[in-house]
């Protein structure tokens, strides 16, 4: 028994191309992001830096990375006015030793925010080497 051959016509080719484009756009739209936003601080003189992240599950955390420099990593979370509260997390247990405790944000999708990653000397010292990014709760 012979297998029927697909005869390619301009209309069929256009339909196949449109279907492939639609499938690609749906795949991109439905694919979860690894994180909603991430930013790293500047690097200290000894080579340490902080990475602040808002995960796609709505958690804020910060990691102390790079060379040991005696500084702690700090993340600041500033939601848009009237849509949540300021939060801060710190990683003070040494560089490259896991991340500090995370905080659940509990915000609805669509809330915009600023995320700041810094290094700090001590629990209440001044922030240094800060960098900022913006994001949207997804």
UniProtKB/TrEMBL annotation:
Domain of life: Bacteria
Signal peptide from the UniProt entry: 1-36
Keywords: Signal
Keyword Signal assigned: yes
Name of this protein: Secreted protein
């Amino acid at each position: 028994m012979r297998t029927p051959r697909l005869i390619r016509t301009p209309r069929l080719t256009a339909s196949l191309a449109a279907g492939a484009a639609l499938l690609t756009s749906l795949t991109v739209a439905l694919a979860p992001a690894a994180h909603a936003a991430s930013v790293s601080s500047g690097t200290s003189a000894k080579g340490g830096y902080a990475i602040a992240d808002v995960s796609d599950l709505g958690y804020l955390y910060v990691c102390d990375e790079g060379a040991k420099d005696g500084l702690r990593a700090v993340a600041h979370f500033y939601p848009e006015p009237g849509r949540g509260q300021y939060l801060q997390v710190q990683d003070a247990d040494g560089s490259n030793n896991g991340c500090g405790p995370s905080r659940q944000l509990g915000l609805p999708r669509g809330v915009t925010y600023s995320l700041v990653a810094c290094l700090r000397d001590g629990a209440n010292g001044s922030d240094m080497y800060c960098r900022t990014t913006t994001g949207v709760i997804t």
